[in-house]
């Protein structure tokens, strides 16, 4: 088996390997495997209503159009606090403690 190709390493099992894998774990097919693993109360009752897929080029064109609507603003966060003495106890117990800001 060749392991130097990206597709072989990253795009799931080959069709001819699936029956052996299912037999090894003791199920007759992928539907039975899904039935045993995914609880029925969280499964969708109907197929997804997804739009037709687009190419990578179309996607990048669309995402560039969306990104072109972004506006850049000057950031003033932190101005006025540079070179000041900030007590470590305040920094550690208030500013660096997630309880205060989450």
Low-confidence runs:
none
Shape: elongated
Helix content: 40-55%
The total strand number stands at 0
Q: How far is the first residue's CA from the last residue's CA?
A: 50 Å
Tally of helical runs: 5
Order of helices and strands: HHHHH
Largest sheet: none
Residue share in β-strands:
under 5%
Average pLDDT confidence is 84
Give Rg in angstroms: 27 Å
Q: Helix/strand/pairing class, anyone?
A: mainly alpha
Describe this structure in words.
- The longest helix is centred in the middle third of the chain and has 12 residues, at 56-67.
- The chain has five helices and no strands.
- Helix content is 40%, strand content 0%.
- The chain has a domain at 1-43.
- It is mainly alpha-helical.
- The chain is elongated, with a radius of gyration of 27 Å.
- The chain has helices spanning 6-10, 18-25, 30-37, 56-67, 88-95.
- 0% of the residues are buried.
List keywords for this structure.
single chain; 102 residues; mainly alpha; 0% strand
């Amino acid at each position: 088996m060749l392991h130097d190709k990206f597709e072989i390493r990253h795009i799931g099992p080959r069709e001819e390997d699936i029956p052996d894998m299912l037999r090894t774990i003791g199920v007759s097919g992928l539907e039975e495997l899904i039935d045993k693993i995914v609880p029925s109360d969280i499964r969708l009752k109907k197929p997804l209503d997804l739009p037709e897929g687009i190419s990578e080029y179309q996607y990048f064109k669309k995402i560039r159009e969306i990104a072109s609507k972004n506006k850049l603003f000057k950031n003033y966060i932190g101005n006025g606090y540079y070179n000041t003495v900030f007590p470590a106890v305040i920094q550690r117990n208030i500013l660096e403690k997630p309880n205060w800001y989450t």
